[in-house]
Amino acid sequence: MTANFGDRLTEANRRTGSVLCMGIDPHCQMIPALFGDATAEAGSPQAINAISNFVTACLDSAIGKVAAIKPQAAFFEQQGPDGMRLLQTLGRAAIDAGMLVIMDAKRGDIGSTSTAYAKAWIGHDAAFPSDALTVNPWLGIDTLDPFLARADATSSGLFVLNRTSNDGAGDLQDQMVDGAPLYTHLASMLAPLAAERVGDSGVSSLGIVAGATWPDDAKKLRTALPHAPFLVPGFGAQGAGAEMATTGLLRGVSGWEGGVVNSTRGLIFPKTAANATRLADWHAAIDSTIAENTAILNAAF
């Protein structure tokens, strides 16, 4: 893996004709019975088998149709050691299939702890293989240094939590400092770091998380970070439509570039798939949902 992450992300946007990212959060109560008993005791063979069947099917439907997948580590971690082994297996299988993997683990700490986190979560040779990792900068910008060093060494990417999509995001991110909200100060601190990591495509390997629920803020962030890829949560289930979700993206030659728009429940738990009794029917429902959401986002171009 030698190409800049921003270049590989741009290539994935163009190859799939999509900025859609499939979030893979195996909510046990929502996994159809078709895959087994995911509601069995956490970490039990029954639960692990059902979750494995489900996430494997999600990956199969994602390949070639979305720009990236984004497994949420917490849903695997709650299953114990076997759940984490399943996350390893999913990441490796996705990478082997040519998919971009954004590990949503939101790591962040200081010194040697950050170095250990970075080694565990960033790169194709990591314990939990990925192309990019979500990281939390709110302990201070210096805490990003080990993550940046590891990402640079492995041609990987980072998505820094900047303006998140949750309702309480403003409790800290909107606090005014010197006449401007705190999230804009963070963007200014990240700007030179992103500029140093711009690839041939014009997209950096250092990106941010910018929630679709705050489109006006996304415009400010794009001005401050013209080359940073945006990981955009909040589309669909959290209430943001296509116009809101694509506000911070870049206009490419033939479609949106400069990031990915994540959808989790909308893609892997659509109502049309909930009662499927055959795997073929489930895949047909998921594939149709991916195509529909891709078309919705592309229509906003």
CATH class: Alpha Beta
Domain module count: 1
Instruction: For the record, give the distance between the C-alpha atoms at the N and C termini, rounded to a whole number.
Output: 31 Å
CATH superfamily: Aldolase class I
CATH fold descriptor: TIM Barrel
Task: Please give a structural write-up.
The protein is α/β, with parallel strands linked by helices. 44% of the residues lie in helices and 16% in strands. The protein has one domain (5-164, 177-299): TIM Barrel (Alpha-Beta Barrel), CATH 3.20.20.70. The protein has helices at residues 5-16, 45-62, 73-77, 81-96, 111-121, 145-153, 170-173, 182-195, 215-224, 242-245, 265-268, 271-274, 279-299, and strands spanning 20-24, 68-71, 100-107, 132-135, 157-163, 176-177, 180-181, 206-210, 230-232, 250-251, 256-257, 259-263. Strand 1, helix 2 (45-62) and strand 2 form a beta-alpha-beta unit. Helix 2 (45-62) packs across helix 13 (279-299). The longest helix is centred in the C-terminal third of the chain and has 21 residues, at 279-299. The protein starts with a helix and ends with a helix.
Key terms:
44% helix, 301 residues, alpha/beta, eight-stranded parallel beta barrel, two-stranded antiparallel ribbon, TIM Barrel
List the helices and strands and how they pair.
Blueprint: H1 5-16, E1 20-24, H2 45-62, E2 68-71, H3 73-77, H4 81-96, E3 100-107, H5 111-121, E4 132-135, H6 145-153, E5 157-163, H7 170-173, E6 176-177, E7 180-181, H8 182-195, E8 206-210, H9 215-224, E9 230-232, H10 242-245, E10 250-251, E11 256-257, E12 259-263, H11 265-268, H12 271-274, H13 279-299
Parallel strand pairs: 1-2, 1-12, 2-3, 3-4, 4-5, 5-8, 8-9, 9-12
Antiparallel strand pairs: 6-7, 10-11
Helix pairs in contact: 2-4, 2-13, 5-6
